[in-house]
């Protein structure tokens, strides 16, 4: 998104991305439709409070709220630090607590572009055989999953899993306006897949929980996953951090993961 554009144009783009009319947004923000129109056309410059109210109603990501602030001639409001920053030490500890507390089942943390930040010890066995160039940082977990040299050859239900990931990624790219996610979707959609399974074939329940079935040294494993995000972050980095946790989808997988967990060394006190 071009941060040199007027703030009104940026707000209009977000409104249209959310499929809202000016009247809809005015109702949500409890202001007049005329005021919304004046802001979008540049006839009125929003105050910081008004800009924050509109951004909140439009569910604009924190990173893009900073862009809106800058476009309006205001100072960015949300800090952006690396997760290793001492100021985010408690957040890093919370991430580690979730990841390692989920063992013996896999869990991983990713950034806004699905690049791997960290993972627990149960993830490593699933990556056996994945090409080294896919695991080099920044390693993208969606690319690892669907690339022909990644997990794809070992995913039992590749067509269904691929359709699920592409649907989720397309929705995320559309809702955030992130060009990197759109490019990633185009790349992944171009990977070969013998299973002719389209996103439209997914059942309504499949959008909630699609099993991830993969062949491994422990036999065929089946997982369902959930995504966890920080509830009310005031830092851009934390707002874009997500933790994906995998749970056994059948008794055989649960038993295999318990057996794997029995081989793990106890974690040091820091974890």
Give a verbal description of the structure.
This protein is α+β, with helices and mostly antiparallel strands and 271 residues long. It has two domains: 7-71, 434 Repressor (Amino-terminal Domain); 86-261, Beta-Lactamase (2-Layer Sandwich), CATH 3.30.450.180. The protein is built from twelve helices and five strands. It has a five-stranded antiparallel β-sheet. Strand 1 and strand 2 (116-119) form a beta hairpin. Helix 2 packs across helix 3 (33-41) and helix 9 packs antiparallel against helix 10 (179-189). The chain is globular, with a radius of gyration of 21 Å. The mean pLDDT is 90.
Note the topology.
Elements: H1 7-17, H2 22-29, H3 33-41, H4 48-57, H5 62-71, H6 89-101, E1 107-110, E2 116-119, H7 132-135, H8 141-146, H9 158-176, H10 179-189, E3 212-216, E4 219-229, H11 236-239, E5 242-248, H12 251-261
Antiparallel strand pairs: 1-2, 1-5, 3-4, 4-5
Helix pairs in contact: 1-3, 2-3, 9-10
Compute the CA-based radius of gyration.
21 Å
Q: Class by helix and strand content?
A: alpha+beta
List the helices and strands in order: HHHHHHEEHHHHEEHEH
Query: Number of helical runs?
Result: 12
**CATH architectural type of the largest domain:** 2-Layer Sandwich
Pfam families: HTH_31 (PF13560), MLTR_LBD (PF17765)
InterPro entries: Cro/C1-type_HTH, Lambda_DNA-bd_dom_sf, MLTR_LBD
GO molecular function: DNA binding
Organism: Lysobacter firmicutimachus
């Amino acid at each position: 998104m071009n941060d040199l554009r007027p703030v009104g144009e940026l707000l209009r783009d977000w409104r249209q991305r959310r499929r809202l009319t000016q009247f809809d947004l005015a109702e949500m923000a409890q202001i007049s439709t005329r005021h919304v129109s004046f802001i979008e056309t540049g006839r009125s410059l929003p105050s910081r409070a008004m800009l924050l109210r509109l951004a909140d109603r439009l569910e604009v990501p924190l990173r893009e709220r900073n862009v809106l602030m800058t476009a309006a001639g205001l100072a960015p409001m949300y800090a952006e630090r690396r997760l290793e920053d001492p100021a985010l030490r408690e957040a890093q500890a919370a991430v580690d607590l979730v990841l390692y507390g989920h063992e013996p089942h896999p869990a991983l943390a990713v950034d806004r572009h699905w690049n791997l930040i960290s993972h627990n010890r149960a993830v490593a066995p699933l990556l056996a055989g994945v090409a080294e160039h896919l695991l080099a940082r920044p390693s993208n977990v969606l690319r690892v999953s669907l690339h022909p040299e990644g997990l794809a050859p070992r995913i039992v239900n590749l067509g269904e899993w691929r359709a699920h990931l592409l649907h989720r990624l397309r929705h995320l790219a559309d809702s955030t306006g992130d060009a990197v996610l759109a490019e990633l979707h185009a790349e992944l959609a171009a990977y070969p897949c013998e299973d002719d399974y389209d996103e439209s074939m997914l059942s309504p329940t499949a959008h909630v929980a699609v099993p991830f079935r993969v062949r491994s040294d422990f036999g065929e494993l089946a997982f369902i996953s959930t995504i966890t995000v920080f509830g009310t972050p005031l830092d851009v980095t934390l707002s874009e951090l997500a933790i994906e946790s995998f749970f056994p989808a059948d008794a055989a997988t649960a038993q295999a993961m318990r057996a794997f967990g029995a081989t793990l060394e106890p974690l040091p006190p820091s974890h």
